[in-house]
Amino acid sequence: MTQLLEPDIGSFRETFGGVVMSPGHRDYDTARSLWNGAIDHRPAVVAGCLRAADVVEALRFARDRGLEVSVRGGGHSFSGASVCDAGLMIDLSRMNGVSVDPAARRARCGGGTTWAALDAATQEHGLATPGGTISHTGVGGLTLGGGFGWLTGKAGLSCENVVAAEVVTADGRILHASAAENPDLFWAIRGGGGNFGVVTSFEFQLHEVGPVVELGLLFWAQDRGAEALRLIAQVLPTLPPTMGTLLACLNAPPAPWVPAEHQLQPGYALLVAGFDGPDPHTAFLNEVRAALPPSFDFVTPMPYTGLQQMLDDTAPWGINAYEKAHYLDELSDGAIDVIVEQMPRKSSPMSFCPAFPLGGAYRDADENASAFGGSRSAGIVFNAAAVCPTPELLEADRAWVRGFWEALRPHANAGSYINFMAEYDEDRVRAAFGPKYDRLAAIKATYDPDNVFHRGVNIKPAG
Ligand code: FAD
Predict the structure, then answer these.
(1) 84 lines ligand 1 (CB under 6 A)
(2) Distance 315 CA to ligand 1 centre (A)
(3) Distances 140 to 95, 124, 258, 451 between C-alpha atoms, Å
(4) Mean local confidence (pLDDT), 346-374
(5) CA quadruple 306, 308, 309, 314: dihedral sign
(6) Helix axes 225-235 and 278-291, enclosed angle (nearest 10)
(7) Sign of the torsion formed by the C-alpha atoms of 423, 428, 430 and 436
(8) What is the mean pLDDT of the chain?
């Protein structure tokens, strides 16, 4: 890697169509900071892009000078992949426009859009595409790596809802990717991560959702964890596949809807989102409540955009974080024993384990239609996340996450989810793609033979 000198940055500033931020610029520190406060990298220059042509220009400048390149969408990679030291950071956060065609049920958004912005625009028409569960997360990284959320059972992964994309490749071409144009690139960007280029815009198919949906949250205190998890394991297969569920092992938040005696207390929550009116939702919750009365519950209709923002405070910007995840074929007795043994060992009250039960459209999808490599027979993706207000707590809970993950390993299947990785161990990356890895490596060799885009989950170019 070469050293970038001030005159180089000056010449870039003269020709670049976007905003150039180098050390000393008033927005430089904001631009280089990510959601994970434990990440502290200092790029030589940040290229704040406004359009695809700016991405082309930034890439050309970086490659001419042998600079490392990183690409920032929403800035939520736990690993810090989207910011680099001494290189050039392509910052897409200004490319956040959204347009919706309600008649065609399509939405187009820039590569740096957040889910909050996309959901707000599509919900004006009572439509949505499956996104993540925290609204300040980027559409870019979440979609390119897969995308689990409330709508996964109803409408599949985020990446499976992409119908077209505009991609700037490593050699500076602006390509359109869809089933009809550059189909290999289109296949690869849906699940293969940011390996193949900079996605400057996504086009999604939309589904009728809301605008009002049902939320039910049942919470059992920590001492009833095993009973609660066994019940959850038993009832999940009976859940209508179009409902969205999240299992969260966490300390109850200090929210007004949590009774005072349970606020900040550890326990296990089953969250159920209903998209088909209150009746099936109420029936399911009543069944669970009758089988094991929760310590407290919270059941309410809410706007879909409210559901999408409901957990935002559990993961504030700038918090110190680390995570590791497994796919479990089922929430087996062995897995439950590990979970209830490990949960009380965390140090930070904010550290938690979100787990997405999987079924419905996720399981029914044609698994070869996209590059996403997660197992379709998995019943749940279980994530242990250290979320820590201080670096000292992060050190303790990083060790907790690693120990938890090892203990759960005998109960997990071989797969791995690239978006829930804080570290990119080669064997886990290969496990994430399984037999699709070789095809991805061949496509990587076509579109990025020099491995310019290597900072995220990296697929090495074949040959
Ligand atoms: P960034 O750090 O900007 O990017 C992540 C990676 O994608 C980097 O390698 C980056 O270079 C690349 N990238 C981003 N945008 C582009 C683009 N337009 N073109 C090319 N490459 C790009 N995952 C889920 O599946 N479901 C969830 O509910 C969920 N919730 C989360 C909540 C929080 C608080 C956090 C921190 C993460 C969550 N995740 C979830 C994981 C999330 O999917 C990943 O962290 C994802 O990488 C974030 O994308 P980003 O664009 O915000 O991050």
Answers:
(1) no
(2) 14
(3) 11, 22, 34, 19
(4) 96
(5) positive
(6) 140
(7) negative
(8) 96
